[in-house]
Design goal:
252 residues, alpha+beta, 7-stranded antiparallel beta sheet
């Protein structure tokens, strides 16, 4: 298996990446879906990476260099569906790893996470990512697929590794970034193109959720089947609308 390390295609053993594609050290990262070896929403992911790095006080390589390196990588490591992980370290190292991706074939069971997350400014998509993966691991140990995470002010935030799209009172809503929500690429797209509203949601409103999706660049819109053991409605037509929009807007 080969990866990009600082713009050069090398065997993964010669890079600073582990077998999951994580770069050692600290920095910012983007996880991007590829279809037939073409990355989706690359421009949006690059803009977010630039902004995240600026917030942490460093710069990432030029977009031309990153795009050319990704193209070389995807020609070398080809998959019908793939997971492209770009990592930009605060020490100046950066990497790109292309892995096969198996889409979710089932709806998700959600459980409300029992520990509130303190909110200190806008979240940054940074690594190490252990604190988020630990939430996911804890929820899976309870038999669920994903968490509903709330902040220390009693507001719904997001999943452990996903954004939340919820239907309450027949209106599709997603929590605001100011409540501790990572500015997800798919989240932005459904707000822009699918008539989704943004508002703060109290933890008590979880019981009022009629239907829901998990949003991410890989999952697009994974339907939720239950929340805290309560079955919720399925919105297959809206899911089809979101997937069509993602295909229409994400290539490039």
């Amino acid at each position: 298996m080969k990866v990009i390390q600082n713009g050069v295609l090398v065997p993964i053993q010669e890079s600073d990446c582990n077998d999951k594609g994580w770069l050692s050290g600290t920095g910012v990262f983007e996880t991007i879906k590829t279809v037939e070896n073409k990355p989706w929403a690359m421009s949006r992911h690059m803009r977010r990476a630039v902004t995240s790095a600026q917030q942490l006080g460093f710069r990432i390589p030029s977009e031309d260099l990153v795009r050319n390196s990704v193209e070389e990588l995807c020609l070398n490591q080809q998959y019908p569906l793939g997971l492209l992980r770009l990592s930009f370290g605060q020490n100046g190292n950066w990497s790109a790893v292309h892995l096969p991706y198996e889409p979710f074939s089932h709806g998700a069971k959600l459980l409300t996470y029992d520990k509130a997350i303190a909110v200190h400014g806008q979240p940054i998509k940074s690594y190490p990512y252990n604190y988020r993966l630990e939430i996911l691991k804890a929820i899976k140990a309870l038999g669920a697929d994903e968490a509903i995470v709330c902040n220390d002010k009693g507001k719904i935030c997001e999943g452990s590794v996903t954004n939340l799209l919820l239907r309450i009172d027949d209106t599709w809503v997603t929590p605001p970034i100011s409540d501790g929500v990572l500015p997800g690429v798919m989240r932005a797209l459904v707000i822009e193109y699918c008539g989704v509203s943004v508002r703060s949601l109290d933890r008590s409103e979880i019981e009022q959720v009629q239907s829901a999706f998990l949003l991410s660049s890989l999952r697009i819109a994974q339907p939720v089947t239950s929340i805290d053991g309560r079955e919720v409605e399925q919105s297959s037509d809206f899911r089809s609308e979101i997937e069509a929009m993602a295909l229409r807007t994400s290539v490039g």
